[in-house]
Amino acid sequence: MRAEDILELLKGVKNPFTNMDIVSEGLVTKIEVEEEEGKVTIYVAFARNTPLHPFAMAVNWPIQARIVRDMVNVLEDRLGYFEIVDDTTLQRYYPLDETEV
Q1: Short-list 53, 64, 59, 70, CA closest to 86
Q2: Model confidence over 8-20: pLDDT tens digits?
Q3: SS3 14
Q4: Which of the four, 22, 51, 68, 82, has the lowest number of CB atoms within 10 Å?
């Protein structure tokens, strides 16, 4: 699937705080499609849009988690392996790392 097709799918994901789609809002900053490996990386601008204040970070975390969940719901049946990564911190939001116990 091409990056443009993925962007079209992600236009169906709304920011619950602003009710705008995340593509128009600028939260999706880059999509890398590696066809040989069957891997897609979607970069989002969460860290750069969150003020560096503990309260603001605490308020924004549930909104960001909801956006990631909605992105996964839209993409999981259409893509093989994909990652959602912050474009500033490179924190991976999806898939979650599994740790061995």
Answers
A1: 64
A2: 999 999 999 899 9
A3: strand
A4: 51
pLDDT single digits (tens) 24-67: 999 999 999 998 888 999 999 998 776 666 776 677 788 999 99
DSSP letters of 53-88?
SHHHHHHHHHHHHHHHHHHHHHHTTT-SEEEEEETT
Q: How far is CA 7 from CA 20, 30, 43, 50, 86, in A?
A: 14, 9, 11, 22, 16
Residues in the chain: 101
Task: Reduce the DSSP state of residue 51 to 3 states and report it.
Answer: coil
Cα 90-77-45 angle, rounded to 5 deg: 25
